[in-house]
Specification:
By secondary structure, this protein is α+β, with helices and mostly antiparallel strands. It has two domains: about 80 residues, no CATH class; about 80 residues, Ribosomal Protein L30, Chain: A. The chain contains five helices and seven strands. The strands form three sheets. A three-stranded antiparallel β-sheet has the order 6-5-7. Strands 1-2 form a two-stranded antiparallel ribbon. A two-stranded antiparallel ribbon has the order 3-4. A hairpin with a 4-residue loop joins strand 3 and strand 4. Helix 3 crosses helix 4. The longest helix is centred in the last third of the chain and has 17 residues. About 20% of the residues are buried.
Amino acid sequence: MSTYTKSYPMFFELHRLTDSAKARAAPHASRNFKYTAAEPAPLRGKLAALVCLCSGGESPSDPSPPNPDGEDGDTGVELEDKPITATPRRFKVLFHNDDYTTMEFVIEVLKRFFRKSDTEAIHIMLMVHKSGAAVAGVYTRDVAETKSIQVMDHARENGMPLLLTTEPE
């Protein structure tokens, strides 16, 4: 439970005081006004109204003082800010051309491991064949590395020297 202290002009120190102590504290209007966030809201409202009236001001429309700590004054539960999560870095899975891996095998791998349609698989295979490399997909680092390892293991089992790499997007 944290205590929040803020200076208000012409306010005095009030911190869980009884009614008689509040009356005795009224002449000390140059001190700080303190409240504990775990105090019930009606008590805080009465304290703020009392402070305002003692300082010669009018009763505020919202008698509760501001609570910049982000704590819920009704229950005394401290609320924490949610951590800001960054978007994970994305990695490209690249197929590289070689002279031994068949086009049919590349199409089968693209459909099986990357969930590509026939048309997409043929298009990617032709890009690999013509330009030397092509992107099969963009994933988070763990997924991209796992897919490239699985595909290369499958290629080795079938006697193909297929090479896949991952690189940041």
